[in-house]
Hints:
Layout: H1 9-28, E1 38-41, H2 50-54, E2 62-65, H3 73-84, E3 90-94, H4 97-103, E4 107-110, H5 118-124, E5 129-134, E6 146-149, H6 166-174, E7 181-184, E8 202-205, H7 207-212
Parallel strand pairs: 1-2, 1-8, 2-3, 3-4, 4-5, 5-6, 6-7, 7-8
Amino acid sequence: MILPADYSDDARALWDAATALNRAAAAVSPHAAGLPPLLFFTDPDRTPRPWETAVRLPAGSAVVYRAFGAADAVETGRRLREATQGVGVKLLIGRDADLAETLEADGLHLPEREAGRARSVGQAHPDWLLTAAWHGGRPMTEGLNALVLSPVFPAGGTSAVKPALGVAEFRCWSQNVDLPVYALGGIKPDNVASLIGAGACGLAGVEAIQFAFR
Length: 214
């Protein structure tokens, strides 16, 4: 998909890089075919109105809604479902399978420590897209569609205290697992070109995507 003229240069840079990575990954791995090239991760503090970004995402993208126990999780989730439904944008819910069922979401994103749930979740919801966080080391992959490896670059939020992997280490880790791997952490329009050839199946981000797609 080519973005319409009213999208920013930053949005084009992110989307073009994400789709190029996705095509390259799909060419060598059938597991990557059909995955969203771009994942918008929400955060209660950094993305207080995530539906405003979601409604601007191009078809083929996905939103990963992380409620973190917020009291208004269902209300915000319904706004995101309304923004994404019927326009080719998937909605994944962070960790909470019950909330995902309530919102009729398209999948679940699991914390790294809970990646082992993927098999049972997938058996209950065979149509769901299932991803999990990964921070290096030996990941649990059974039942998952993809991993989200972070932080690739110096990042904000909870990843601010973690050392950045860098592109070379990202490439090393991604080449040693049998699942597609997204790049997350410090993703910006001016550094995504360095990920070309690093084995990522797409890009994931928080503030950079919110800023670009507004």
